[in-house]
Amino acid sequence: MPIVKYPRATEPLWHEWDKKAQKCGLRHTVYAVNGDYYTGEWLDNLKHGKGIQVWKHARAIYSGDWKFGKRDGYGSYSILDPVTKEYKKVYAGWWKNDAKCGYGVTFYPGVERYEGEWSSGQRSGWGRMYYQDGSVYEGQWLEDRPGGQGMLRLPNENRYEGGWKNGKKHGPGKFFYLDKGQLFEGTWAADIPKCGILIDFGRAEAPAPPQYPIPKV
Fold it and tell me: Do residues 42 and 29 make contact, with C-beta atoms less than 8 angstroms apart?
């Protein structure tokens, strides 16, 4: 009995078109209907490698590394300044799974900025924060607030060194009143000193030392 050979089924044309449309490796620019667009590298139709994403309505730009469609690696995020009409960098550092993660620097409105570690988009780990009034906090962070051990230096050079919880002084700590030449060492709870001792600390060199004897109340 003769063997009948049937022709092999050909692959549908749409499969071939889909393969040709796949963006992989090369740099492409793709526009969205809302005006957003991305220029960069792709893998399996996902942003992957180096690329720049522009959000039209948010007036923001991300330039850096991508991994399977999400910001991952090193990159910077900038927004349009309404006054200068130029893009101003607000974050430069590491990302993971589309959120700030690792070491990075964030620039806030005015002169405030944070330099340090991030986790899941929040300040977490070691970091230094420069505030608008001239104060500087340096130490540990947890869930976007000072938490752990840290130092807060005020504009007049007075400073607190000790424990923090939920952004407030908490636990054993020391407060140096350099303007008065005194040191308070004790325990805090939610920013309030609960108990401790106050001693002279360089009172002779202080610009405004307290007067003794202390007058009666």
Answer: no
